[in-house]
Design a protein that fits this description.
- The chain has about 525 residues and is of the alpha+beta class.
- It has a domain of about 160 residues: 2-Layer Sandwich (Beta Polymerase, domain 2), CATH 3.30.460.
- The strands form three sheets. The protein has an eight-stranded mixed sheet with strand order 3-10-9-4-5-8-7-6. A two-stranded antiparallel sheet has the order 1-2.
- Strand 1 and strand 2 form a beta hairpin.
- Helix 13 packs antiparallel against helix 14.
- It is an enzyme of class 2 (transferase).
- InterPro entries: NT_sf, PolA_pol_head_dom, PolA_pol_I, PolyA_pol_arg_C_dom, PolyA_RNA-bd, tRNA_ntf/polyA_polymerase_I.
- Belongs to the tRNA nucleotidyltransferase/poly(A) polymerase family.
- It catalyses: RNA(n) + ATP = RNA(n)-3'-adenine ribonucleotide + diphosphate.
Amino acid sequence: MSGQTARTDSHGKDNAPASESQTPASRAPAPATRRSRTSAPRHAALPASRPVRSGSRKGAAAGANAHSHPAAALGLSKQRISFAALRTCEELQQAGFAAYIVGGGVRDLLLGREPKDFDVATDAAPEEVLHVFRRARLIGRRFRIVHVMFGRETIEVTTFRAAQTNGQTDAHGRMLNDNEFGTRDEDALRRDFTVNALYYDPIAETLIDPLGGVQDLNARLLRMIGDPATRYREDPVRMLRTVRFAAKLDFQVDPPTLKPIRRMAPLLENVPPARIFDEIMKLLESGHGLACIQRLRHEGLHHGILPLLDTIFETDEGFVTQALTRTDERVQQGKSVSPSFLFAALLWPQVRVRWEAARTRGEHVVPALDLAITSVLDEQGVKLSLQRRYQADMREIWMMQPRLEKRGRQAFTLITQLRFRAGYDFLLLRAGAGELDGTMADWWTAFTTGNHDERERLVKESLANAPKGSGNRKRRRRRSKGAAAGGEGGDSSDVAGSGAAAGAVDTTVMAPLPPVSGAAV
């Protein structure tokens, strides 16, 4: 180690430097609890041995079991890493720390996929990471992490976690505090699956594989690290992650990993709703949402997660299948999707059933729909933490449906509304699932793409074909006494209101809207 300067951690223990050419900068002592990080030189090739498999907790021996691969031999290259992730590793190593790209980003690169984002793991404590970067912030309580910002890109930086033996847990075994830090090899044992326990050093162009993740990637096998039942008890969300990764990657699940899931599914009831919502969104936005939902049902994980998912497929499987299929297509094409639209589609079958029931009881169309929406959202909110803005958007999409079904002259007003595109797209889904006559979807498609004259013709045809009493005829407003006597003393709000009620919209300046497809709001 000639030419290198050893650094001292917050407890005064010497550690080998992470960079061979840089002298660590002086740092203030970090208050975080840390374990000794003494280890062999980082880039030394480690002897190959049998990987740790499910049911094993050989934490102390993990370092000796690590495999070191030249990145080029596996098809990895720093050119495929984002600038922000590469810069984060460079700066941490220049400050004297170890830094690796970890998790799903490395896994996706090895599978030939385009990573959604990159995460970095380091032996620097969170406070030390904050000291290295100018734009960084500390988040999290259960496990503290640092978000490092480079322009619009944010890199999540985590400190190596220690092998927990007596961590703080709740009555069900769920880990409540995970802020004891350790070595890279201990950190590998704390990760969920072997294919996610891969450490790529883009500076040294080396991949560290402590637990046989590369072998499992080649076998397309999803294997839990450690005893699966214990790991699910520590964090029940891992059961959802197992389903999501199996569907997304098209991997087989290792039998010992799969076996406890159905029995332990009730533990998800103890997880905060916000975490469940985040994991469900990852599942739906994975590009394999339909396969994930079907896998949830197969493993029995849908009970209690989405209270209405228990009967969604039984109520209207065609509609939900089409909605998820079109959403998956958008994700695979690199297009964005809207959480509001996704949940509006998932929950619509129950809204429709309750809407029809209210109308059977004698409620008018719009009040009946409003009652059904309120009922479903109240029920769903018990378990799944839907933000108010999402609920508001969902309500707008749903409440727009009877107005879209009427067509008529109000179409000129509807097309100017903020949520029209989402409401129109939702109408297309309903028509595609056979809930509505396809001619209604064709009418709206022609209206959105037509010019002013074509729109006028479509409106006249819809009014002519509308049955009597359909409500498409304009109502004459009552004139105030002042206005009837010559206009003096009339209410100005009545005058303005009459214009709006009559659909007084300057349609000559409305540009044709392109057809909308997919679940975008």
